[in-house]
Amino acid sequence: MRRVSRVSSIFVCCLLVGFVVSQSGWAQQKSSSGETTKKAKQAKPAGRLPDLYRQAGISVFQRKQIYDIQKKYRDEITALRKQLKELESKRDGEIEALLSDRQKADLIKLKNLRKKPATSSAKPKPKSKATTTDKAK
């Protein structure tokens, strides 16, 4: 019993020391005269790394170059996405123009049904066979 209380006391002390150390580091960052906030803003990434690039071990310099390349193409990609949205809207309008009034009404109803969340009247899933056979044993 004494051993358990000693171990728990040591554990609590370690937690307290960790908490105090982490809080003192936080207080230093917060109390400095705006310098850390400027550094924090500079340290924020200018973009987002593509999937798996971080695991590939790229350097800080390569990361900055990636962010610069992403920034270079950002406006053009945004404009193209806007243009794509407009083209899709135009296409959908032409397709809808082919439909009769009844078909349009049916389509609206179907779209509304798709948007509605599942109701609570859904049947509960049956228990798996493994669960019921385990109880029988």
Description:
Helix content is 73%, strand content 0%. By secondary structure, it is mainly α. The protein has a domain at 1-44. The longest helix has 38 residues, at 60-97.
Brief summary:
With 137 residues, the protein is mainly alpha-helical.
Please describe the topology of this protein.
Elements: H1 2-31, H2 35-43, H3 60-97, H4 101-115, H5 129-136
Features:
5 helices; 137 residues; mainly alpha
Which stretches of 5+ consecutive residues score pLDDT under 50?
Answer: 26-33
Q: Measured on Cα atoms, how large is the radius of gyration?
A: 30 Å
Number of strands: 0
Average pLDDT over all residues: 75
End-to-end separation = 39 Å
The helical percent reads over 70%
What oligomeric assembly is this protein in? single chain
Summing up helix and strand content along with how strands pair, one would put the structural category as: mainly alpha
Major pleated sheet: none
